[in-house]
Amino acid sequence: MVMDGNKNGGFSPNIGWIVHRDVANEAHTVHWAKFLDKSIVRLCKEYGGIGFTFLIYPIGGLRRFFWKPKNNGDAPPPIHLPDQQMSTELWTKYIACSLSDWIDPDSPEPWLAQLSNDHFCQEVEYARYLGVQKMLIGLKHFSSRRLAELIKQHLHFLVLLPTKASDLGTVEMDVWTIWRDFRTLCGNSARLSVGLSLTADLDSEFDLHNDLALRRWYAEPLSSISLDYSLFICGTDNPLPTLPKAHRELINYLMVNRRQNIVLSSSTVQFDDISRLEQAVHSAKQLILSNGNICKNDGPMAGFFDLLQPLSDNLDSTVYQTFEQDVTKYVHYQRAIKAALRDLTQQAHEDTELVVFVLGAGRGPLVQAAINARQELESEKKHNEQSFLTWKMKLVAVEKNRNAILSLKYCNEERWSNSVQIVQSDMRSLSSLVDSDVLNRPDLIISELLGSFGDNELSPECLDGVSPILKPSTICIPQSYTNFITPIQSLHLHQSIATLNRSKGDEQCISMGRSKNALCHASDCCYVVCMEQFCFLVDTVEPCFSFYHPNKEGNSNARHARVRFTLPPNCELMGFSGNFEVCLYKDINLSTHPMRYTKNMHSWFPALFPLRQLYYFPDAVTVLFDIQRKIDADGCWYEWNIEYEGSDGQLFRSEVQNADGESQYMKLRYEMAYSFAVADASEQLTAQRRDEEQMRRIYDKMSDCVLRLLLTQTETES
Amino acid sequence: MVMDGNKNGGFSPNIGWIVHRDVANEAHTVHWAKFLDKSIVRLCKEYGGIGFTFLIYPIGGLRRFFWKPKNNGDAPPPIHLPDQQMSTELWTKYIACSLSDWIDPDSPEPWLAQLSNDHFCQEVEYARYLGVQKMLIGLKHFSSRRLAELIKQHLHFLVLLPTKASDLGTVEMDVWTIWRDFRTLCGNSARLSVGLSLTADLDSEFDLHNDLALRRWYAEPLSSISLDYSLFICGTDNPLPTLPKAHRELINYLMVNRRQNIVLSSSTVQFDDISRLEQAVHSAKQLILSNGNICKNDGPMAGFFDLLQPLSDNLDSTVYQTFEQDVTKYVHYQRAIKAALRDLTQQAHEDTELVVFVLGAGRGPLVQAAINARQELESEKKHNEQSFLTWKMKLVAVEKNRNAILSLKYCNEERWSNSVQIVQSDMRSLSSLVDSDVLNRPDLIISELLGSFGDNELSPECLDGVSPILKPSTICIPQSYTNFITPIQSLHLHQSIATLNRSKGDEQCISMGRSKNALCHASDCCYVVCMEQFCFLVDTVEPCFSFYHPNKEGNSNARHARVRFTLPPNCELMGFSGNFEVCLYKDINLSTHPMRYTKNMHSWFPALFPLRQLYYFPDAVTVLFDIQRKIDADGCWYEWNIEYEGSDGQLFRSEVQNADGESQYMKLRYEMAYSFAVADASEQLTAQRRDEEQMRRIYDKMSDCVLRLLLTQTETES
């Protein structure tokens, strides 16, 4: 069986085959059924030859699968799928199992419900014994309370739903809602994934024009799409069996990562001619391979990053190196610096010396950008006016991290001809150096202190700290920035934070909250996340806080925003995704706004403000997101909650999250504290560094995601 | 630089080069020192070309390294090892760092101690900034209390000690004790490893004849051996530089795994002729490659397994499959069964039917062995007497696991011509089946219920449960078994259990103790461990508990043993390693006794009874190990402690571990309990299954270890 195509570097889609549907008729012969149950190796070889990469086989054997239960005390045939016919590694690798078809714990017949309950447990126990990792189970009713109870207690399940709600006995709910109700009954376990079994007629929620409804599946653990052979069309003009356009488009829309698979089956056609089935597999594979939506990256995601705290921690060389690799960002900075220098020198006299401060210079990328900018002006002048620039530039690099100072000194010697004045200092403590004439007042200050949510690395506080040494005319790059939020749906992100919550409780984990000893709620932190399995619930992104520099009036940096979003019906609010836009100088901007993302930039993942629970809204509703940026003497923190009007007309207000910065608090001062905690932290950093190596790979994915969102956006608009 | 030879499947030893020793003289020129500090890439290339796989370079640069501190307020030269000359991944991969030579926090001069303290922190902080994972530090005094305090708080260190205690200012302690004292001061942190810098004269503790002293290094995280070029001899008859015999033998003895490396340096010779250095590297590599002691496996070890509880859990197919792969074990069983059958049929009449029960048949390996045994007797008879066996064999396979019953039925159909009677039952409940004539009383009962410590999977209790259905003449295979213990030293195993202790406290972990809710001490459990980094403290292994079957007199299976060992001076007791010997029938035995290990058998790792703390004994001492096997209505557990006479003549008695089975309790009954706990446990099982895939690899290693121990043993004896 030529399975596991992924091994060969290249991507080969996973296509499975549901064995039992094909053999439904022969299976009634006891002998034939028992023979097949013992022929798994042969089946693997045969279907592997056709192009399948795994098989789905009834865990209890075929005779038991097709047994018709009667209320006469008869027991079903015993489980018959011998383990010793194949080694356990191969079971795990190539076989998924399905429950016996008659098992229905939610049957209205009490005797069948009871019988189903017992045999469900027995089959699941046997799957565990075999080492089979995944069980496929078809949902039979729009409400399956007893099944949910059973599933909660066991293994991993792939729950299959048709794309037609009426097949599950309802016309009042859509398929997504039926699934949501079911997984909620199952405690939203991360052990559950969902499959869609495409029907010939698709419900309107699966219509591509219905983007707001359809994109909810992006927020679910959709791992499989099941296709019956009868869906394929074999035209005379087209000898290859192909799927109808609507089905093809739906698959293209829904399959967005390489871990998802397609499962084929045939309940009607007998395959005397194996080549037709081969063609169907080929056709399904081509459909996946030609899908531009599929992310290149299929590894496990790096997950959640706590906010960087460059003020209270010293960054290390690896972090600097990673961020320096964002060429796009520095090209924009260079353009902004060039424009500012040009404006500053418009009326400059000969021998004017422009003083330029790079604040938080790190290992020097902005120093380099400033040098480049002046050189560009020089060569332009030379080219246009055949003369040289008459003004000089005095560059000062200010950095508090004493290790990075060593890097700056190296660059100064090796690359900058010792032309840069390097100052080891917190940028908020430069007054004495200016007062004692060690430094001149700057004409231009340049910094890159922004986090994923703009101000979250305390750029406003740092730049305000420089105000005392500025001239009235000093230009600040950046000039201003604004952050934005938008509501999202995502089961996966909610589950991930629940997992973090457990580990945050761990004593080994260092609290990010105000006090080292405070109990820290993972759901009350803002994260930097490369988001996957999520969808935006609205097509708008609303501005939140804005900051302008220089802040000559000394306005407070505390903020309070109340932002309203009208959510569509049948959605589940998980939290709010945050991003920002910065005006570096005049019309030169950088943006992580989903609709205006700066192309090829990869310095920032989105920020995420989670809610403590998932909020399901059956009807359209207006939700208000209330967020505050609070400040005290030592630091800064966000507090947030939501408000909406319930179906009863009552105003619902959720508890304020991260009240008083208990779970997450951004400190204003560097803490030099070598202790066990720091040693432990450095081990965590080592682990994080490994994550960061993943970052470049993720950046690719990120660009892909953004591109896809932009495309979706454009398609929706057009 | 041709580093990382391990990548190419084949094993290439790691050889490092200590840069600063070589350049000590030139380094005094400021210019040259600063030039070298910026030439790391070139150095990597040059030394890589010679055959080195990593470099050790002073973290603060050469000038700072060689600075001579004076008590006049002068500061040392600033750190000078620019990070941007090489990308951070390469720093991590190819560079280890050494602290500046003059740093000595334990200096008797208070000003130097203080200066050292401050600059130690600064250099370590810079190493962290660079992303360098390991710092080399040479011990300067036999007692280094302040250095230990500093090290405790930081990163990973390789602590280098000479093989001559007088170099550290003492003739009263041996080098191992100096190291033990130091790591104890450092809280026995797992972040520390040790290196031995071989001196021309080796202290007597490094003499190969002094095995009891030398083997203590097996129990330490010995990661490096450092050699100065001056140790190599270049004879006229031997053009290749080689090490003296004593040094070669010592390296062969100490280097036992592939993660260990050799570090070369030269403090005297200048290398005008690079080829001599090349030859020294070649010579060091050959020394490692020709070393038969080095274990094949160099991956991280699978670690600790909790005891299997086949009585209270159902094993799964993977576990059965793993154990079935031990051919040697089943060949011995087959021989034993054959001998028993021959004895039983000595006076058998024609048409006698011998009833053979396989108790706990699993998926049937012992059933197969019984069938094979009879077939062998048949063909012997045919060959010798030209006639057929006249007696029949009635095989009954008893198994309580309903899933394994399905496997047995498959084998019965496919391999055993339905000749075997399969009974799903606990072996302790067969009386009713015998009384009702469903089963005949057995002439022979066969079982394989032994764990790593013999009785720990409750074989005595299970077999006693069969007593009511036996005939007076029934033969039991096995007939008897005895377990053994021996004291061991191991920092690594102690550290590993300390780590387990943390995770055992975790609520997600299922308690193995008497009560589900009881607090479980990891140090109070007996483990099954593929041991590494340990040594036996004595050359004897003492018997502990013995059991005989059938137990017709119904003797109690409770046991109490008090075993004495006389430990050598300067050793550190970690716990006791356990193993067993079983007499299957007459002279056919299986053994995991270190000196009598059954060749090629791999079903059992050693058992380990840890102590709660490490016990260091400066003088020879007699330690008594007190161990009890206790039983109550529901299960069985071990309790243990030690006793010895302290240097003050007072008897010391340690607290009884696992009192009342609080931390580990082997249950007598199967618990069918589907709950969240079980679902979680099944996820743990999945993880464990991955470990089990490692098991086969470990078996190889295991055989290696045993072989090595046997070899060492033989060498010592001869």
Annotate the secondary structure layout.
2 copies of one chain form a homodimer.
Chain A: E1 15-18, H1 19-22, H2 30-37, H3 40-50, E2 54-58, H4 62-65, H5 88-94, E3 95-98, H6 110-130, E4 134-138, H7 145-151, E5 156-162, H8 175-185, E6 192-197, H9 211-214, E7 222-228, H10 245-254, E8 261-265, H11 274-289, E9 304-305, H12 317-324, H13 327-344, E10 353-359, H14 365-385, E11 392-399, H15 402-414, E12 420-424, H16 431-435, E13 444-447, H17 459-464, E14 475-477, E15 480-489, H18 491-505, E16 527-529, E17 535-536, E18 542-548, E19 559-567, E20 571-585, E21 588-591, E22 607-617, E23 621-631, E24 635-645, E25 651-653, E26 666-667, H19 676-717
Parallel strand pairs in A: 1-2, 1-8, 2-3, 3-4, 4-5, 5-6, 6-7, 7-8, 10-11, 10-13, 11-12, 13-14
Antiparallel strand pairs in A: 9-16, 15-17, 15-18, 15-20, 16-22, 19-23, 20-21, 20-22, 23-24, 24-25, 24-26
